[in-house]
Amino acid sequence: MKTFDLFKKKSPRRVGLDIGSDNLKVVEIEIADKTSKMINMGIKNIQDLDPTGIPKAIKDLLKEANISAKEVNISIAGENVVARYLSLPKMAPDELKKAMEFQIEDHIPFKADEVYTDYKIIGDDPRSKNRMQVFLVAAKKELIEAKSKLIQEAGLKAQVVTMDALAIKNTLYFNYSGPSNENNANIAILNIGNKTTNIIITKNKTPYFVRDVRFGGETIGFLLKTKLNIDQAKAEELKRDMHSVSAEVKQMVKLSLTNLLNEIFASFDFYENLTEQRIDQVYLAGGFSQFSELKEFLGGYLNLEPIFINPFQNFNLNPKLSSQASQAGPALFSVAAGLALEEL
Q1: CB count, 10 Å around CB of 216?
Q2: Per-residue pLDDT tens digits for 105-121
Q3: Which of 56, 224, 292, 329 sits 20 to 30 Å CA-CA off 115?
Q4: Sign of CA dihedral 65, 286, 76, 274
């Protein structure tokens, strides 16, 4: 079985680089002597670039952010990345390695030779003392290799490649580590980007459900542009403030959001049926989480008030970064911050 280190930690790193569909985001952190510092950060729009221009954009971004590191942590997401939660008989590590070859064939919708895989034993299966829980991740080779190539052409080395979803989990628990989040709370995180939504359900810092859904801010942006005959910039502005939009258009937007809601309900139902436990808290991250209608819309249907993740909450922020973070929007940096935390 071919593996790619989606979980394994190699050496401490402090830089997380999030290569999104619209923006590059980077953060550099330092954690020492019980203090957590956000040293540098930056964001660069790449919406109009073709892939050949991204390596230079990465170089430029790190230079602008005063980051000299040559090793970074990166992540992947989308339809070519899948995660599965398995219940298997308890066995020795060597036996598990052999058994996972067959599990991949049974549980991954790709051919085994098309993917890199990794897995992690979560713990005992509470439903059977003779079984254990295993978290399996598989990603198409072409996806990982394409993203790694971008990094190499930028003169960098990808030290860790993980999932957007797992990076977001790091950000949540680092910044919201109170008793409710560490004491058996079933937490759902919705990281809603421009093209993809990561749905993560975690408990006691362990991921029990991960799914990437093809829905994001571009869906609503396209709807606003089409119905109102406006340009991209105006559509982005309206996504942040919908007060001037007619009731008819608002209703169309809500109908479109129903597609996302259905995916969330399906994910929650799967987890709740599997564990016989209810979701206790919902957190929001990602650029589209700031859509003016979203929190109220989701809260009304989920019967839980979503909480916005501030990825800088537990960091001492370099004073020169405060205005930059505020202007760009903290929600955009949740994955980058989680990537920087991956090795600490």
Answers
A1: 21
A2: 888 889 888 999 999 99
A3: 56
A4: positive
